[in-house]
Every structure is written in structure tokens, then in C-alpha cells.
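Box 3.1. Reading complex inputs
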Amino acid sequence: MLSGLNFQPARFGLWPAIFVLFIISVPVLAHHSFQAEYDAAKPLTLTGTVTKLEWTNPHARFYVEVKDPSGKVTTWNFELASPNVLRRLGWNRDMMKPGDVVTVKGHRAKDDSTWANANSVTLSDGRTMSAGSSADEASAAPTSK
Amino acid sequence: MSKSQVRKDKNPMNFSRATAFLKSIAASFFLSAALFMLVCSLAQAQKLLTEEGGGQALTALTRLQSNSTAPTPHNADGTPDLSGLWGPDKNFMYDISSALKPGETLPLQEWAAKASKEHMSKDDPNVRCRPSGIPRMTPYPWKIIQTPKLIVFLYEGGTHGYRQIFLDGRSHSKDLDPTYYGESIGHWEGDTLVVDTIGFNDVFWFDGAGHPHTEKLHIIERVRRPDLGHLTMDVTIDDPGAYTRPFTVYGHMAQLVNTEIMEYICDENNVDLPHIVGKDSRK
């Protein structure tokens, strides 16, 4: 239906962006509190090379080497949801391999280490996957009383 | 270029702009309508839970809810069939005070109120991969298996555990060792499954907020399935060791479809603890 239309982002205004944001903002689950470990005021977006994926409970984790402008390499440890939650979100353990270049959006740990909670991952094939983060589970909840 | 040519050239341009404008309007309308329908469907999914009195569905599992209002299924002996896959109520994860009746507060004894404030997330037994106990839930599905004389709850999370509810007429054992899930004896009162549980340890917390209890804990759950897609659980907590009077929290669970409980061995790679510095303030 849309393919026959002349897609001009400026004329659509913000609707496509809002729509996409809505779709990718599916929250992630954690067996512990997001607030106790990660800082919502410290968002980050990093692009780097995957060195390892741990497809384990209670959280899948992956390690990304990120090079800064001076050439210094830092290894970040990102938390994902549990493998079960990730599978329910459409992931499988073969989607991210050592050597893949990925872009991760997430939040840093409160202790300022290179430890972070992933909110979404853009994989080497271009797909952007929700990481199942509990970051916005609370704010998304309906208040019923 | 003659005047008529200019006019000729100009008209198609106007037509082209007008067409593009209309296409943009149409596309925006289509996207707006799609977004509106999506928001409405999600809101409806949540509403079915909340109308019954205050549950909070887990957002990430919402799209797996059946939201069915078909009649409650029954077994050959006439009892309601509670079996199936269920999602947790967030009120039973973060803070059970959210599951009280409106206006009520938890009747904490002084030491228990102090302990709740001092309990930090890094010390949460559930974060340390211990079983969640009752009535705490974890952000994972759970399953009810029902037979006439035994009902079993299988938990994916908190942590890959199970509960047995005996309906074979037995009484509570004497000299029970304290455990996370205690000893549960059930019976039917009409369409309500009534479960009486004693024999708890004092290790687990009721929620992420750190509400404590003692080995004097006695829990009575009243479980109903008002329709195919929903389960309610009124949990009366009586612990004269930590609370000044019995109180009841109300849980609302949604039937999940198109998924299954899966293995979840929490202590496989639980490496978060050194980085957990605060406390969860979610309700």
C-alpha cells in the first residue's frame, strides 16, 4: 500500500519516527532491578566489534571492543535479557558472533565501570533487535488504582 | 517560451505538488491509524487485567496474552480447570503494597519496616538466584498442571522451581522443616481453589522492595479463573512475627499463548552482584 506513495520524510513529519520508536521500545526483563544497577541518566550508544557472546542465565551477555578517536580500545560488557526472553523477542544465539560489528544502545552501570545494560542492538546484518531491558518496564506499566 | 507554454508547464507542476501533498496526508493518516490501533490493542490487553481490581501485566509478555473472555473451562468432576500457562502480576514482583486494596498500607511491625528500608537489591535472595517463595513472582511465565488430587505450579523463573498443592484430603504435616515454598494443602470452595500453606523459611523476601517475614508465616490463597484468559489470586498473609495483623494482596494473571516455559538456571552466570549498588523503587 505504501510502496506506491512518494515517500518524502520531511512531508511525513514525525510520524514514521514515532512509529519506529514505538515498535523498538519493547522493554527488557531482568531478574534484578534495573534501577539498582544501571543509571537511566547515563545513556550510551557504542559501535564496536563483538569478541564474545555468553548465552547464559540469568542474563545473556556480550563483549564489545570499542576504539576511541585516539585509538585506545575499551572492552564493554553488555547485559541482555535471559536467553528465554530473547528467544521470545525473536533472537537466537547465532545472531551475534565474534568479529561482528554491532551498534548498541543502552545505559551504563551506576559504578561507572565498562559494564552496561543493552536496550537495543543493531546487528551486523542491519537488523535492530530489542534487548529485553527492564529499563522502561516500570514506566510503561499501567497504574490501576 | 510563450505565455501559454508557461501556463501549460505550470499547471502540471501544481497538480504534481497537490498530488504529493495528498499522498503525504494519506500516508500520515495510514501510519497514524496503525499507531492508534496498536496503542488501543495494547491498552485493551492491560485493561482486561486492571478492571478486576488492580493487576499489572508484564509489558514484555503482553503480546503473548490470550486476553480471552471465553467461559472458564471445567473438568469432568465439575471443578474449574486452572491448567495452562500464566504471566506474572508485576505487583507481586516489585512491591506487594501495590497489590493491597486502594488506601491500605502494609501493617509492618517496627523491625520489619526498618528491615524493608535496609534491604538492598544486592542482598535480595531472588537476585542471588534463590527461589522466590510465595507470593512473589518473577518476570517469567509459570504453568499450572492440574489433577483431581494434586495441582502443581511449575516456575520458569525464581528459580526453575515448583510447588505441589495436595488435594487428597491429607492434613498438614507435623514438625515441618522450613522451606521456600512450604507445605500446601488445597480444597475447593465452589469455583475457588483454597490453598493453605505453612512451613516457610524466613529467607526469601516478599518482593523487590524487601518486605520480610518470619517462620510464623501462614498463607491462604484463593485462586479463581473468572474466564479462559484470566486468573485471580487473593493471598492472605498472616505472620504475627513481622506484621501487626493479617492482610490480603490481590494478584491478577493473564493466560499466555504461543510460548512455553523454558529452562532457566539462574546461577549459571550470575555476575551482576558486584555492580548492584542501589535499590529498586518501583511499585
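In summary: Residues 1-13, 39-52 of chain B have pLDDT under 50 and may be disordered.
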